[in-house]
Amino acid sequence: MSHADADTVACEGWDGSECEGTIHCPPRCPRFVDKEGARWTIRPSVPEDAAALAEMYEGFGTEHRAQGLPPVTRERRAEWIESMLTEGSNVVAERNGELFGHAMYTPTDADRPELAVFVHPTMQGRGVGTELCRHVIANAAAAGREGLELHVESGNRVARRVYRAVGFELVERRFDLRMELDLDDPVATEVRWPPLVREGPASPTPERQPAAEGPAPADD
Question: How far is 126 from 2, CA to CA, in rounded Å?
Answer without folding.
Answer: 26
